[in-house]
Design goal:
Blueprint lengths: L2 H11 L10 H8 L2 E2 L3 H9 L7 H9 L3 E7 L2 E6 L3 H24 L3 H15 L5 E2 H9 L9 H11 L3 E3 L8 E4 H4 L8 H16 L4 H8 L3 H11 L3 E6 L2 E6 L12 E4 L4 H4 L10 H4 L11 E4 L2 E11 L2 E8 L5 H18 L3 E2 L9
């Protein structure tokens, strides 16, 4: 196995090269979770894996409660399927909660007594399917003499979301809202721990493979022993290849077909393709990784034939979205055309057309 094999299979398995999904919920369920701290970017992360997707269609899935935004793993915001949110929180958040308890008390004076009071306050304020903005949530806490100053409010909602008390609801204008999880998705199911571990491992290696067990532990936030246990439960259904002394696991019927070159994709910040692996060397050349502007997948990335070759940003103007690319190397005319096509796909998702500059090929 080579890096080329790895990226070709990941592009297929993550449904970037083959956008076969029709619904946002199907994308999120397939991937297991989609990183979502950059809200607008995360909508595109879902949309780029769909056929004929629009930003409005993904937002409707949020309002219709088929995808849920919360903190299910690593203390980081993700989208998860409504049917998965309960068992994923139960499996993955206790370790994060335990490891952050001292930090919350020492840095924010948030002990278990204050958090219990906060829980009761928000359960009362949100009951009856209320959706409150962040500021309204903070006001409810302040009214009962629970300070939200100095980042305290965010730490409270972060912790209560991981406990499965609250999650994000639909946006109110451009502002996020919070709701009670049990009211928002009352049919979210629980699982026995071994079943949840098996399900998560199966989802990850099927949708993100080829990947190592260390990648799985990084992505999920599981202890190394739990990640290994999850792999053991599913590896009879997976294929294995060794590269650089590391075992890579993936769904056994995965096609190794390579996309016609050049093939370009404009991925958002924190896309699963770039950040869901502990070792990102397959997608980011070491010489580029040393650049101050490499982004390491945290910035929106230009992907060419599976490799990160630059970063990009958008500027919304009246009637259009202007794309500003930052390629790490000079692009050929064919590569420019491939990225212009990717920009067109992004524009179709946004609504206003996206403009790719005619001359962006110089390295910066």
């Amino acid at each position: 196995m080579t890096h080329l094999n790895v990226v070709c299979q990941r592009l297929q398995n993550q449904h970037i090269a083959s956008t076969g999904f029709e619904k946002p919920g199907d994308v999120v369920k397939w991937l297991g979770a989609v990183q979502a701290q950059d809200y607008l970017g995360s909508l595109w992360a879902i949309g780029l894996r769909m056929q004929n997707a629009t930003e409005q269609a993904v937002e409707r899935a949020v309002a219709n409660r088929t995808i849920i935004r919360t903190w299910p793993m690593r203390g980081t915001l993700h989208w998860v399927s409504a049917t998965d949110v309960r068992w994923m929180l139960e499996l993955l958040t206790p370790r994060v909660v335990a490891s952050n308890a001292r930090r919350l008390q020492q840095q924010f004076d948030l002990d278990e007594a204050v958090l219990a009071r906060s829980r009761k306050v928000l359960e009362r304020a949100l009951q009856g399917s209320q959706q409150l903005s962040r500021n309204a949530v903070y006001r409810a806490l302040e009214a009962t003499h629970i300070s939200t100053a100095g980042g305290r409010g965010l730490q409270i909602v972060w912790r209560l979301a991981q406990e499965g008390v609250i999650c994000f609801g639909a946006r109110e204008g451009k502002q996020p809202t919070f709701v009670l999880l049990d009211e928002w998705v009352p049919h979210a199911k629980s699982m026995a721990r071994h079943q949840a571990l098996t399900e998560l491992a199966q989802r990850y290696f099927t949708s993100h493979g080829p990947a190592t067990v260390q990648d799985f532990a990084w992505w999920s936030g599981l202890a190394a022993s739990d990640a290994q246990a999850g792999l053991e439960m599913v590896k009879s259904h997976l294929a294995q290849e060794v590269m650089g002394g590391q075992a890579y696991w993936f769904y056994s019927s995965t096609s190794t077909a390579q996309e016609a070159s050049p093939t370009a994709h404009l991925l958002p910040a924190y896309d699963e393709y770039t950040v869901a692996y502990k070792d990102r060397s397959a997608v980011l050349d070491p010489s580029y990784a040393q650049r101050a502007d490499s982004g390491h997948g945290i910035s929106p990335t230009m992907i060419l034939d599976g490799q990160i070759v630059g970063t990009w940003k958008r500027t919304l103007k009246k009637g259009s979205a202007v794309i500003t690319p930052n390629p790490f190397t000079r692009l050929t005319k064919a590569q420019e055309r491939a990225f212009a096509a990717a920009a067109h796909q992004y524009g179709a998702f946004l609504g206003p057309p996206a403009e790719w500059p005619k001359a962006s090929g110089h390295a910066k």
